[in-house]
TrEMBL record:
Organism per entry: Diaphorobacter limosus
Entry protein name: Peptidoglycan DD-metalloendopeptidase family protein
InterPro entries: Cell_wall_metabolism_enzyme, Dup_hybrid_motif, M23ase_b-sheet_dom, Peptidase_M23_N
Domain M23ase beta-sheet core: start-end pairs: 172-266
Coiled-coil zones: none
Gene3D superfamilies named among the record's database cross-references: Glucose Permease (Domain IIA), Peptidoglycan hydrolase domains
Positions of the Peptidase family M23 N-terminal domain: 27-98
Length: 272
């Protein structure tokens, strides 16, 4: 499928590089890091009506903003709530163009032209997952959001690809695929709490983790789940297994990372 592979030495070579993570990349599917300046209390920031993660301390706060894949190119903004009753302050930033390639895949026809029953199932699951995605919890994650790769293996650079399944255009690819054999244990990339476990039409066996402050991660096409909703996981703790369930062409981990309900490129959280 045209995977762009990183040499094995790249991860080690980059480990000494100072942060910050996630890296800023102001494109659709990227992340903006917006300096908010000093303030005695953590500022409350929204993108539209969606709360945004704010990290730092009283000497300097930073908003970590997920930019949706569907974001228009040009100026975007967040609003910073005032503490003294004054109007909210707007902070503008620029979203640059990024041209994502097209990827054509052949999958089981029933996963592209859905039967009425499968369509109804998909719609129920979509509504459920939208509720999962709205999670915004405390405590907030620590300032260092450098993630551990959840399975060893070759990372594809397939985030954002415009997808054509069996000749029909579908939503862009909103995660990173990592090649690994069925049964390979998947580990938590950061401390997190299990907030959803399911078996979904497109995503197959799926687990969602909540890392706090609207930073979520999802793991799809699993062959097995070794955790339960509510469980707290430490970085590196195994909680599920790679598989080939749902709409896939073969076994791999689909890994998604979400900030303020926007799927962003997981590579921005990894050291290389
Ligand atoms: Zn994928």
């Amino acid at each position: 499928m045209g995977l762009a592979l990183l040499p094995a030495s790249a991860a080690l070579a980059q480990d000494a590089t100072p942060g910050p993570w996630p890296q800023a990349l102001q494109v659709p599917g990227g992340v903006a890091r917006l300096a908010l300046g000093p303030a005695p209390e953590r500022p409350v920031v929204h993108a539209g009506d969606i709360p945004v993660l704010v990290l730092g301390d009283a000497s300097a706060w930073t908003a970590i903003v997920g930019i949706p894949l569907a974001a228009p190119v040009g100026q975007a903004h967040v609003s910073v709530q005032a503490t003294d009753g004054a109007p909210a302050r707007r902070i503008a930033y620029q979203v640059a163009a990024k041209k994502y390639r097209e990827q054509r895949l052949n999958v089981a026809p029933r996963t592209v032209d859905l039967s009425p029953e499968d369509q109804a199932r998909y719609e129920r699951e979509r509504d459920h997952q939208q509720r999962v995605m709205a999670t915004f919890s405390t405590p907030l994650p620590a300032d260092a959001l450098r993630m551990r790769q959840p399975v060893p293996g070759r990372r594809s650079s397939s985030f954002g690809l415009r997808r054509v399944f069996n000749g029909q255009a579908r939503n862009p690819h909103s995660g990173m695929d990592i090649a690994a054999a069925t049964g390979t244990p998947v580990v938590a990339p950061l401390p997190g709490r299990v907030i959803d476990v399911g078996d979904y039409f497109f995503n197959g066996g799926t687990v969602w983790l909540d890392h706090g402050g609207g930073l979520l991660s999802m793991y799809c096409h699993l062959s097995g789940v070794d955790c339960a909703v509510g469980e707290q996981l430490a970085t590196g703790q195994a909680f599920c297994r790679v598989g080939a369930t749902g709409r896939v062409t073969g076994p791999h981990l689909h890994w998604g990372v979400m900030l303020n309900r926007s799927m962003v490129d997981p590579a921005l959280f990894l050291p290389a």
